[in-house]
Design brief:
This protein is an alpha/beta fold. Helices cover about 50% and strands about 10% of the residues. Strands 2-1-3-4 form a 4-stranded parallel β-sheet, with helices on one face. A two-stranded antiparallel ribbon has the order 5-6. Strand 5 (about 230-235) and strand 6 form a beta hairpin. The protein is globular and about 75 Å long. The chain starts with a helix and ends in a 5-residue tail after the last helix.
């Protein structure tokens, strides 16, 4: 099939399901962002100017803020959430600094409090509006799928259009660009997602042909997903090199995490002490024996430590584990979970359902063997079953909660759970930890995936 036949086929396929839009996506979202900024500035500044003693001064500084906002934040909102939040606030900060410095030299701002309030309100409101616009207007992409590659064709969605291409068209980058542009125009896409097998030179040609549409080309990187802050490029006249920074946070972030762990664990232990006493009494009344349970786990860099938990099983639980696993045919599988486990006590089922049995691990957080957030520590026998990249999860301090726990807990397969932990090990940040803690509260209250 020739390139022209490809173009006609794709044109008919896409035109039948996607309406044509008159504007390119970059222009459409830029108009929306500019309209929000200007409308907000005019309404707020006009209201304040009517009551201020120096309306021309306020209008002048407002105009400066509008210009700075437009100059700093000209990228379409749908493509840069960080830009949409930072740039309006940065513009407001620069304007405030300029006005204060000028006021120290020449007192030309008699209504400073009103002026400051105006700029802060404008900056904050614009940042919120642009961030909301980013969340609502998801970027559209045309995803190229190479025929005969064996990769499944993804389903078409509201923001994604799969387009099949034959291997023969890869030999003609210009023809490929023409085919792709048809889909970009009809689907009103912001991105073109390339498939494996496309030469970087051909990707450069494609990006050049799509420049007038403001469309970016995205190339997949094989391997473990990494956060964008770890990626950078080095370019010279001979080649462009992709630089992947090591998966290690700065000393400042690590100190912040440890401080947060220590203070958080101490505060939680103090607040939850009445609950811990009640739980200890219930455990002892139901099944006399040790209240606490300690078990060897593998932690940071493969070092073993003893983990604290409330006892939720009968006293001889470990002695009965091997026999129960053999009965259910699970003695050679990871996680060592027993279905309908008869060893669990009455209070133990409730404690496990709401993860109350894990609260004594706050002591492990205080002594530094664990963190509030991180991959769950596993037993040496489970670590012995690791394959592939699974050992990467041992490169960070284990936690009381993590991506595994807030994404389904025991409902997830062993492989998926390991993928989530490895992703966290490569990409953790303090902001991610805070988000996981928030999701943990919801998961615990819903008892999602608890056993």
């Amino acid at each position: 099939m020739t390139a022209l036949d490809h173009r006609r086929t794709i044109t008919a396929r896409v035109a039948s399901i996607v309406p044509t839009t008159p504007w390119s996506p970059a222009l459409r979202f830029e108009i929306s962002a500019t309209g929000l900024v200007l409308a907000t500035a005019v309404l707020v500044a006009g209201t304040v100017a009517r009551t201020a003693d120096a309306p021309m001064t306020i209008w002048a500084w407002t105009g400066i803020w509008v210009l700075l906002t437009l100059l700093l934040g000209t990228r379409p909102p749908v493509r840069a959430l960080r830009t949409n939040v930072e740039m309006p606030l940065m513009a407001g900060g620069l304007t405030l600094i300029g006005s204060v410095m000028l006021d120290q030299v020449v007192p030309v701002i008699p209504a400073m409090p009103a002026h400051v309030t105006l700029l802060v309100a404008l900056s904050t409101l614009t940042a919120i509006l642009r961030a909301l616009l980013t969340g609502v207007c998801r970027p559209r992409s045309v995803e190229l799928v190479l025929e005969g590659s064996g990769s499944p064709v993804p389903r078409r969605g509201r923001c994604r259009l799969p387009v099949r291409i034959s291997p023969s068209i890869l030999r003609d980058p210009v023809a490929l660009a023409r085919v792709v542009m048809v889909s970009v125009e009809q689907f009103d896409a912001e991105y073109v997602d390339l498939c494996p097998g496309i030469d970087p030179h051909d990707a450069t040609v494609l990006a050049w042909e799509l420049r007038t549409y403001g469309v970016s080309v995205r190339m997949p990187l094989s391997g473990i997903p990494v956060r964008g802050s770890r990626l950078s490029t080095v370019t010279d006249t001979d080649a462009t090199l992709l630089v992947l920074a090591p998966p290690r946070q700065s000393l400042r972030v690590r100190l912040l995490k440890r401080t947060f762990d220590t203070i958080g664990a101490a505060v939680l232990l103090l607040m939850l002490s009445p609950l811990l006493l009640v739980v200890a009494w219930l455990i002892h009344r139901d099944d006399p024996g040790p209240i606490m349970f300690r078990q060897e786990r593998v932690g940071l860099d493969g070092r073993t430590f003893r983990i604290w938990k409330f006892r939720t099983m009968c006293v001889d639980a470990d002695a009965r584990l091997a026999a129960l696993l053999r009965e259910q045919g699970r003695d050679g599988t990871p996680l060592f979970k027993v279905e309908d486990d008869p060893r669990i006590t009455g209070p133990g089922r409730f404690l496990r359902r709401y993860s109350i049995d894990e609260l004594p691990q706050l002591l492990n957080v205080l002594d530094g063997s664990m963190s509030l957030v991180g991959p769950r520590p596993q037993r040496p026998a489970e670590v012995a079953l690791y394959t592939g990249h699974a050992s990467h999860r041992l490169g960070v301090r284990p936690g009381m909660t993590g991506l595994w726990q807030v994404s389904g807990r025991s409902n997830l397969s062993w492989q998926k759970a390991q993928e989530l932990d490895v992703f966290y090990a490569h990409n953790w940040s303090f902001a991610m930890d805070v988000a996981i803690i928030g999701r943990t509260v919801r998961a615990v209250l819903a008892a999602d995936g608890a056993v």
